[in-house]
Amino acid sequence: MPSRNSALPALLSLSLGYFSLGTISLAVVGLNGPIGDDLHVEPASVGILVTVFALTFAVFAPSAPILLRRWNRKRVLLVGIGLLTVGAALGAVAPNYGFLTATRVLAAMGAAVFGPGASAAGALIVPTERRQRALATVFGGMTAAAVLGVPLASFLGGSLGWRPALLGVAVLSAIAFVTVFVFVPEIPTGEPPTVQAYRGALRTPATVATVSTTLLFMAAQFTVYGIAGAYLKDRFDASSGLISVTLLAFGVIGVAGNASAPRIAERLGGERTVGLAVIGLAMGFALLLVAPHSTAGLVFFAFWAFFSQLYQAPQQARLVELVPLQPGLILALNAAALYLGMSLGSFIGSSLLPGVGAGPIPAAALGVLVLAALAHLLSVRQASAAKVAEQSATPVHIS
User: Fold this and answer.
1) Do both 182 and 196 map to the same domain?
2) Which intervals hold domain Major facilitator superfamily (MFS) profile (predicted)?
3) Do the Cβ atoms of 25 and 108 come closer than 8 Å?
4) Same domain, yes or no: 183 and 304
């Protein structure tokens, strides 16, 4: 197995693929106005394109490992990012809203194949002790998409039009395809995933609780972040320029959280690091509830970005440890939960905002986060009990 340094080109290629995935999935947020004007649809309808992508991903991610189980991991990665690229390219020439929606489904199917596969590949091409750092490197592309990809797509959409912006993202995804082809090594397929394998994984102690934690953690986060623009304008009277700066700061701080995750996890362990992320997110939401109705309050919004991205790599590493024979399968389930959580949180936030205003929204997020904390505590207890039972069942040899 290569060291992390020798595996670095492969890890960076996977990270670039994740960057493309994140940008394609969220680019329509920044292109809402231009797409709506060109295709003559309401902004709310354009916003649904994010939900279409997320739900397609959530449905297809768990089934993709079974459908593609006879292919080696590298071929699966190439097929995934290939579909992602084609979906983005076709979206750039979409003649109407229905066609654009279909291209989002195609791109999401590619993302559902590539995303979990990239995380599994990143975990498998480095020694076990370097897994946290490898996963942080790979998933860092998704974090960077929020910082650079989405604002860049928004800028290109405003200056050149939404079609050249989507085409530019498709070109970026094509570059990622080439780098994955060149730098990612052939990776053994491992035990072929089956329906029985899914059942076995779900019966593994702590698996369901851990995946549920991801769903609830993301739902809590996107209850606020999913309506970030409207929330910041209503809560802090922020201008469009100030909203852009705040979201950029949020993304930069999120990158710092993702980059810090391996060191913190090595010191505290994965379970405590996930717990720290939950506590930090709760503190951020609590601060938003008492923040002054001024631009100074925007600092509190950016604060919790660190903890939102501190969560991902340690949780993925925990799942790989729980189901070591089926890393792609369990990470696919986790990715599906992640996107379901994004959809659920965005739905909660957008449903509450018209009726109650921005002020109480973080309280709703806190309520969901309490459920995430309970799920995490349950996963820790179940994993600990399973280890004790395994140690008790191991025969002791007396020489």
Assistant:
1) no
2) 10-384
3) yes
4) no
